[in-house]
Amino acid sequence: MMKTPSRTLLFLPLFAVIALVLSLAPAVASAQSGSFEIAQHGKPVGTASFSFKAVPHGYDSSSLVRIAMPGLDYSLSKTERLSAANRLKHVQLSATVNGAAVSVVGTPDAAQILLNISAKGRSATTRLVPHPSAVFLADFDPGALETLLTLAVAGNNRDVWAILPKQAGSIEPVQIATYADEKGTLDGKPVVVHHLVATIAGAVTDLFSGPENQLLQAELPQRGFAFVRKGFVLTPPAKPGAPPAQQ
Predict the structure, then answer these.
(1) For residues 142 and 62, what is the distance between their CA atoms, to the nearest angstrom?
(2) Closest-CA residue to 140 (of 71, 2, 236, 40)
(3) Which DSSP string do the residues of 83-105 spell out, in sequence order?
(4) Which helix (H) or strand (E) holds 242?
(5) pLDDT per residue as tens, the chain (247 positions)
(6) What's the maximum distance between 2 C-alpha atoms anywhere in the chain?
(7) What's the rounded Cα separation, in Å, for the pair 131 and 148?
(8) How many whole angstroms separate alpha carbon 11 and alpha carbon 41?
(9) Which residues pair with 190 in a beta bridge?
(10) 8 Å CB contact between 235 and 185
(11) Are 79 and 102 in contact (CB under 8 A)?
């Protein structure tokens, strides 16, 4: 059973929150962050990082990505505001893809999700059907995958959606399957590794997370690409993991 990370503590009953704050206040207040190496077929091609900071009524998050390789020169900068329930309140993204600039601003409300997308000198506005547990999922963004893990735990892997800022933009359901736990080391210490598989619009991402639900590694749908948290080593299982048998 995966533990709910610190930034989802507000789902607990009030008395439990008070008890935890009294005993674990420094941990709750501390910022969450992660730094990753991006590799293709095992060869380093870039870096990525994210951070989450607790603010009144929610969280501020940011992500940075840089990839430089033959055929792909990619950079991304994203800032978000999330509610206390890790739901999107506002997002702003700036990226360049092989020299072409892309910017996206997204704001959800009760009636719709409004995306303003600018790319290749053209601008477009898209209105999407809102879903409470939706993550803004740009390519190669580890912060978005961290939020996806958080929403999956909160919703027991159900009713999670992904806002995809590609072309005109779309929102897609996320199908999440739980596989057998694996093993690894983080900063040289043994760690139990949870394995989830997320399928979004037919594309599959393998997610590996630690005991506190922190993202450790991701096998991305882009051919041969993976994130690996700095200091983490996944121990390959004897056999590929398989979903648990249906009851």
Answers:
(1) 10
(2) 40
(3) ETTS-EEEEEEEEEETTEEEEEE
(4) none
(5) 444 444 543 333 433 333 333 333 333 333 589 999 999 999 999 999 999 999 999 999 999 999 999 999 999 999 999 999 999 999 999 999 999 999 999 999 879 999 999 998 889 999 999 998 999 999 999 999 999 999 999 999 999 999 999 888 999 999 999 999 999 999 999 999 999 999 999 999 999 999 999 999 999 999 899 999 999 999 885 444 444 444 4
(6) 55
(7) 14
(8) 39
(9) 185
(10) yes
(11) no
How do strand 203-209 and strand 215-219 relate by DSSP bridges? antiparallel
pTM recorded for the entire structure: 0.83
Residue in the block written with tokens 């898209």: 126
Which among 93, 94, 96, 59 has a CA at the least distance from the CA of 74? Answer: 96
Q: Return the closest-CA partner of residue 93 out of 63, 52, 67, 134.
A: 63
Question: Which two three-digit tokens encode residue 149?
Answer: 């893990």
Which amino acid type is present at position 24?
A: L
What's the token pair of residue 134?
């939706």
CA distance 146 to 52: 10
**Residue 124 corresponds to which amino acid?**
A
Question: Where are the domains positioned within the chain?
Answer: 31-175
